[in-house]
Amino acid sequence: MEKIVIVMPAYNEVENIGLMIAELFEEVFPKITGVEMNLLVVDDFSPDKTGDIVKKYQEKYQNLHLLQKQKEGLGWAYVKGFRYAVEKLHADAVMEMDADFQHPPKFVVPMVEAYLDGADYVIGSRYIKGGSVPKSWETFRKFVSYFGNLFIRIVLVKPKLHDLTTGFRLTKVKGVLDQIELEHLMELGRFSHKVDLFYQSIKHAKKVVEVPLAFASRTKDRSKFNTKETISTFRVAIILGIKDKIRFIKFGIVGFTGFLVNYLGLEALKRFGLSTYFSTLLATETAIISNFIFNNAWTFKDKTITKVGDIVPQFLKFNLSSLFAVLVQPLIVTGATRIFSDSSIVRLFALIFALIVVVIPYNYIVYNLFIWKTWKLGGKGQAGK
Fold it and tell me: Which of 31, 211, 261, 306 is the most buried (most CB within 10 A)?
């Protein structure tokens, strides 16, 4: 039987944690079949003795676990909670959940059902049919929540997903969570790490599902979310939004350099009397070598291949993945010269056309998937539209 572990950070939650544990184990978990439900409370040695409350309930509930650590911030609580859930409790999936009842426990059931139906990343969404934010919120807070989330959707180019800032999510371990370098997420001391965690998760998830969440107000005490957290969240989203775009710009610059190598090589070889086809073929291979060197050193600097034993096989793979470009460019250039004339200007524009329309988009996708592996194969399904 698969095991799902709810990871629940709880700092100074003495008024909430006992009620939360009781409701989950007495009312929610009994409704879930086909999977073993566990709750892991992560307590940063709360001064109000939240951990002591959890220890008392551990005497009653076998699947209740407690991880106590030094206070480092919300993100680190989740990271260390995930590690504990996977390495010590052998979780097949982990779930993020607040201890303050802003994530009503009853919504755990549809989240788990979506996972059992095949989703490997489940989002509790406030902004799909059936979801909501508290009516008690002030108009300004509702405005910031809705349009802030919309802004992040636009920046991250994720228009089909409706709630990117929710903290109520379920993630499959194999193939998703185990592919993320958790300790390297941005802003691990703040709530905003969740935007980066979301961004990394959907890169690896094959099927993403949104289920409705009626977000609630805290039943006890005040929310810990504030203006600094909001600003930090927007900052992380902007950084992530431009990260891949910067990589693509770099890729384009390297591609232009390769184009110059390609074109100048083509013209030089033509002067030696080689045919247009073979001149283009040799010039293209020279450009591929140039592109590999510059992409490895600059475009994909964070994934640079440095080991001598890896460079040769990766270059051969790079060459193989570029085979399409090697074949298509000579065909396009040769075809253009036959249709128009075998002149420098025709060869130039034919080469530009081949690069912009076919080669650069194709190569960018292939290199991300197979050479530097910044992307992962697998489409993204989605429910709750």
Answer: 211
Give dist(CA 117, CA 170) in Å, integer: 13
Question: Does residue 259 contact residue 363 with C-beta atoms inside 8 Å?
Answer: no
Amino acid identity at 312: V
Give the range of the structural domain holding residue 134, as residue numbers without chain letter.
2-225
What is 214-274 written as a DSSP string? B----SSS-----HHHHHHHHHHHHHHHHHHHHHHHHHHHHHHHHHHHHHHHHHHHHHTT-
The one-letter amino acid at 378: G
Looking at the domain assignment, is residue 349 inside a domain?
yes
With CA atoms as reference, report the closest residue to 211 among 176, 172, 168.
168
Of 230, 228, 166, nearest in space to 201 by CA: 166
**What's the pLDDT band for 380 if we cut at 50, 70, 90?**
very low
Q: Mind listing the pLDDT tens digit for each residue in 39-80? A: 999 999 999 999 999 999 999 999 999 999 988 888 899 999
Q: What's the predicted TM-score (pTM) here?
A: 0.64
The enclosing domain of 116 has a CATH number of 3.90.550.10
β-strand partners of 307: none
Question: E-strand spans in the chain?
Answer: 2-9, 35-43, 64-68, 93-96, 121-125, 169-172, 208-212
